[in-house]
Amino acid sequence: MEKITVFNNRLLPYLLLLPQLVITVIFFYWPASQAVWQSFLREDAFGLVSEFVGLENYQTLFAQPEYYRSMLTTVIFSTLVAALSLSIALLFATQADKNLKAAGGYKTLMIWPYAVAPAVAGVLWFFMFQPSLGMLSRPLRGMGVDWNPLLNANHAMILVVLASVWKQISYNFLFFLAGLQSIPRSVIEASAIDGARPMRRFWTIVFPLLSPTTFFLLVVNVVYVFFDTFGIIDAVTAGGPAGATTTMVYKVYADGRLGGDLGGSAAQSVILMIIVIALTAIQFRYVERKVQY
Amino acid sequence: MANVTLRNVRKTYLGGFEAIKGIDFEVGDGQFCVLVGPSGCGKSTLLRMVAGLETITGGEIDIGGRVVNQIEPADRDIAMVFQNYALYPHMSVYNNMAYGLRNRGMPEGEIKTRVEEAARILELGAMLDRKPRQLSGGQRQRVAMGRAIVRQPKVFLFDEPLSNLDAKLRIAMRVEIRKLQRRLSTTSIYVTHDQLEAMTLADILVVMNSGQVEQIGNPLEIYQKPATTFVASFIGAPPMNLMPLRSELQSQLAGDIRAREAGILGIRPEDFVITNDTVSGGVALGLTVEAIERVGAETFVYGTRQQEEQGVAAIPGELPPGEIIVRVPGAVGPAIGERIRAVAARDKLHLFTADGRKRLGD
Predict the structure, then answer these.
(1) Which fold has domain B238-360?
(2) What is the reported pTM?
């Protein structure tokens, strides 16, 4: 049964919704529609004249091999980041959920990375793995790895994935921990008495009961890797070497801001937006059905 | 089928708190043992120790001739019904019951037979495909029972299984649990704080208080001969009247040898008779009626003793000092404010030492 609140004043419900609506309109619908409009325009180099060109920006875009490459990069990058940050966070959360002595301190330490700004996190990882100065590059070289994220595309990808995962684990950890703690202890005990070993208990009881949390995090993480990893990529590799870590969102920035192609950049962000909306819709439609309860 | 034996079982927490202070008792094969006591007395902890959900810090628990101290819950061959039922919310009723059998690698065909048999006994046949949230409290309770019986374990453990049900359903389920246990004759240990449940279900009743056993025995025996004032006031509703044995009462009991050592006198409300006749060797109390409770078949008269000594230390489990409850059969009783004389015969008197720890006589 859903609760229905009845207001006596007809205006009040609208007034209560207003702040949220105003924020959404100003910060989402308005810029989004601007982007859509701009994707049909071409501006001159000085931003003085705009010309309506219809779908030309899109046509140019889909004729570029770099664009398909950035799509592929995004798929690899986002799959790796989402999968790793979710599974590592879940592992940590299950450990923190046990009755540890220093659980409080452990949890606090786990949450810290979330308080670090993406760009700062990026710089941090960049310096740690900088081929000639990085404190972690030397031992890597010592082990015979020819470590060079500045030149090697795979190394660069590994580095941005690591930095992005590191940044996102805290958030996922918090939600997983809260999710784990909301599972009644007696249900776990019942399954222990029912003869389920810890691993089986996890996969047959804990994981299914955690699925609403997992689903929520999946949606949030997809949005995170598509948009919020921009700062990390910019600080660590700036999309390089040779575009190997240029994801779609980074390309929006590179083409529009650095390349001055506002129309093309707007077309890219429209496509990106459509992809994220579609992904979220698919998740809601198919994954949520499997969410338990 | 198994005996459960507890030998000097102790539980001390890390901080030094002693939850269980050395408990010994034995539940025979197929017997129904009820652990009863006020909340915080350690009865649930003790049950969880038998289940293997709490570690045992001292002594031994033996199930079917095997010491289980170091054995995982899964390997103790027990089944437990939890207070909140602890059903798996994401599984259908069928899968809830089948889960424990699947974990043990039983073939699906046999699982089906067992689950359907349990569903038939518990009248859950029409609900096998439902999820727990689609069931009523009573139905969930039955699923929890079903999950226990399909396993055909050596021992059933019940942790206040009826306390989340409404009064009517609780009585119905109480009878069903007893019938079911008789039918399967599986050794059972049942924890409750409800003395009525304890009295009606138990073959053996274990009355616990602050981590210790106060008395073990057949429920009626415990009712008739409580070993301590705690048991006397805990078992029976309304509770036994307990009063300090002082000057005036003592002179009434002058002929009784027990009274020499006794410090506390106990009389059950139903053992009083309101009369002006004298009884030799018994006790007569002059009361002023303060309140009347008419239940229909019986009436409870709340009176205050007229010559109440002041400054008497409270007896554990005593009613407010000087208050006495008298049960009168039928709906007719004295009026409020009336002065009555409540008399109890000599064989109805329970005498305890002044600390309430020891029963005298018999």
Answers:
(1) OB fold (Dihydrolipoamide Acetyltransferase, E2P) (2.40.50)
(2) 0.79
